[in-house]
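Pasting two entries for a bug report.
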Amino acid sequence: MASKMVMCDPCSRLNKSSEGLKYCIDCEDALCTNCSDLHSAVKLLASHHLVDVSVTTGSKFNIKKDCNDHEGMCFEFYCPDHDCLICRTCMANMHRTSGKIQPIDVAAKGCKTSSMLEDVSKDIASLLNSTNALLEDRQKKKTSVGQTKAKVLKEIAKFRHDINDHLDQLETNCCSEVDIFERKIRKTVSNELSEADKRQHVIQNICEQVDFVTKHGSESQLFIFLNTVKSDISRQAVSLQDLIPSLETNEIGFESSNLISVMKTFGSLKKSSIPCTVNYQHPKHIQAQTRTIPQQSLSSKRMLIYQKEELHVLQ
């Protein structure tokens, strides 16, 4: 199927129809040949970054340009003392004593070969590896729940053959409890799998944006994007670091009774838990390159415990 033709935005605003062949990253407009030539001829627009319109198909430059603290103001400078992007109001109000403030265009020089790009790329790769491993781990656990159920039911059936027919009802009750455990565990693992999938998509999206801006954006745009995306990466890292220790692997076991002649229960079901085996270490250099993020105290973190629940099936 032929790709949909991109229309020239300036011509469209003049009720004209022209095919867009170039895309201005700064104006966020598709441009036909004539508009592209005119765009480059205007002095104020000559420094804008133009790319082939084909590279923007299905992708967006999600670069935040507006200041968080001052509405209507855009980032124009970089403050090395505070390692942050600032607008003119920021510079006047909060960065008066900073003596090394630079225009973004100046500070961004060499950004595509900088250690910051390398560090951010490594951090994203680390997050992706961990979320991919987490996704695979939870998928395996979800599958093993059914396998464990089959194994337990086989043990129950084997034990059942050693007792009299009057224990049929006790067997039914015990198998019903296995189903209850299995449904609860499966529901928990399904929720964890869904959460892991959401995190993986978020990190994958950040990775694609970094790759896209690196290949097709200007150094200024990449510099702005890397500085604005660092907080998102840090939040994902802290969130993932807190999530993994809270995950458990629940197993179902069966213990048969040794007192068949006087047994009052068919047996007992036990659920054991072990910590998630996925490893993840929060990159320290992200914390060093971003504004201070309040750390959660040790007392407020969830402590992993091994729980063992015993359910007696009464006659």
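Entry 2 (this is the one that rendered wrong in the viewer):
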Amino acid sequence: MLATTKQTLTLADTNSLFYQLAAESTQPGPRFIDRDPDLFSILLSLLRTGNLPSKARAFDLQDLIEESKFYKVESLLINSLSNPSQFEAFNLERSQLLPLNGRDTPSAVATTPFGTLHVAHGSKITSFDWSLRRKSTILTQFTAVDSLLAVSPNLAAAGATDFSGLQILDLETGFVRKTLNWENVTKSGSMVQAIGASRDLLFSSFESGRRNSNSIMVYDLNTFSPVAEIGHGEIFGADLDSAIPATKLEWVESLGVVMASGSHSGLSGVSGNVKLWDLRSGSAVWELKEKVDCFADITVSDSLSMIVKVGVNSGEVSYVDLRKLGGGMGSSDQWVCLGDKRKLMNVKKEGAGCKIEAHGNQVFCSKGGDIELWSEVVMGSRRSEDLLQDRVLRKNLMGRVKDMGGARITNLAFGGNKMFVTRKDQQSVEVWQSSVRGLTALRTGKHQTGAIDLMVLYRSQFQILVCMLLLCYV
């Protein structure tokens, strides 16, 4: 016989079966639940502590998931096994490989905060749930998906550089909920170059089919109705720099701005620009033109308050301190190189194909088949007058020796306590995972007023187990 309390059951969400049982405790008589009592015991322990007990290892995860859905407490299981707070950058190791259907290699990867994964490969998008157990694949109208963003576990925004429009896709049915277009002056198609989002807004970078104009459109994330247009650019004559489309969009929550960056390759090398757009005014509050060692890839870390790039010539990581930015134009001197400055004028383009992404308090940069991890080292005191002193970042190589190397990395993404990696010419996704640690109880400090006994009746070996909740009062 198992025992629990009414107060324990009320720790669950109000729409859960556990909470409903507690709410009905004033009614006399037992409560019958025709489910597996062993799994019930594990979920009860999860409810009490927020952690799965050690005996849960004896059960298949899918059985626990299905049982948690029956009791409507799957969120507890997700919190226990795939919580972003469990992500430990220095504790990541390659844990599994997720195969994809077909022969196409991944072109774009999108995740949700608690680990749902969407992978674009060819004209298909394959989705994995937070447990990475359930997989589904839909066929899109695109020849190849170049930009992908997870709006929710079952909804994504997708676009391509050779197909007009930004599509909002239902990833369970493949149905196109809505197609968003930018109406340019030439009335030609509008191709998606990048997608980004804040908590309430969706951003999309468009380029006209004639490739002579571009813009960044802002939409309401709930209704997908247009809110604003920023960054409209037109090419005049031979001045290609006047209208480089943004190929990366990232929201900077602390500043309330959108970082938009783009580059192109010409006879004089690779050039580009980085802009911070204020949505309230619709204007760029800061801009940096890239001529020397332009970025192969670039990202922004809100936690570290810096823009970080990997140089296309040098292959070295550099950053701009967001706390020291002034208004208007920036200077290339604002970049602080964390590696060998002598490589900045390298003509070998050692950084070509490198990827860089910020997550939490770290920056991850791919170099061929390996990953560098950059973290800030706190030097001295952290008093307010010391906040703008020179910053020190240190580099570490990711993973154990057996995890190192492999084909060139093409995508880095993060969700839950995991990092996802795709590689050139491989029809799969690598999962790098932190070890799961227990979480504290969901609620504490409440006096327990009632006891509920759980009794299991075994009628015969061939009959269904019946769980009975008998309410007692003390």
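Dev reply: Rendering is fixed now. As a check, the viewer should reflect this: The longest strand covers residues 257-266.
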